[in-house]
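Appendix B, record 7
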Amino acid sequence: MSGEVMAAEMAEQPDVLRRLLARLPELAESVRGALPRRLAGSVLIARGSSDNAAVFGRYLYELASERPAGLGSPSLVTRYGARTDYTDHLVTALSQSGRTPEIVTTVQAARERGARIIAVTNEADSALAAAAHVVAATEAGTEVAVPATKTVTAQMLALVGIATALGPLPANLVDPADLAELPDAVGLVLADTTAVDTLAADWARHDRLVVAGRGLGGAVALEGALKIRETSGVFAEGISVADLLHGPIAALSARVPVLLIDVGGPTSPDIAALRERLDRDGIPHATVSPSLPALRSESARAIATTVRLQQIARAFALRRGADPDAPAGLAKVTATN
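Structure tokens (predicted):
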């Protein structure tokens, strides 16, 4: 129960991100060449960790394209037989293996009905890749541990590259010079475990906790909560700060602490306001926001914070006597239909 495989794959992330960064201009050019003449909107389709990366991408797509972007529901095709018209729409499907049946089926149906397809996958020779107009291969190498780590942050970076092909994004959100610093910054996050170890010692006894963020930080919160759930067995709920305030906050107590995700940007005041309320109500909380002055853009900080949450999930699992490499009842590929 050492979690050595997960740790080793986490440690590969600086190199994975560095290699992918070098290919982002080529990817963006391929996406531009595949776009419909007039983009009507974008849909992102995924499951599991890839779905959390899709939430991250949804924000970037809509801001860049100034067209609606949303998350697709595969069951509309596989269970309800929907015949949606995808004319002039961009569909981005994310799957680390490229083999999840419902993702492949949904993408094939969307392509038949007019969509332009981008596949973000770690397997360039997969069925998903074969159904796409453009393949954004993350090339992260084989991932053995069940919890997705290097493949998730690679997906997030690939989505940044795709978004830049849809239109301009402000530098405080996506900055090429800032992204160039990301691999080294992630290396610094991985080398710094003091705060993670302290948090795990204090909090791993809890069976429930909440991970809250907003905007890009909300996507990071969803992914962090999933990592904690699947590795440690702690029932972690990932939620938007806004949704938390719409009722679930009433369930918080000294036994249900809150991890606050602050990646900077326009949602930081919301995190600060929630922090003040938690202080007032006596709810235990901690803020996850790596101290990385070199990273100024929100997208880069979101990716680095995702890595920090991977560390927290692994530390929680080890503290609770669980095996983060191979959580009970889970497999690397989940063959949902």
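Remarks on this record: The mean pLDDT is 95. Strands lie at 41-45, 69-71, 89-95, 116-121, 134-137, 208-213, 235-240, 258-261, 285-288.
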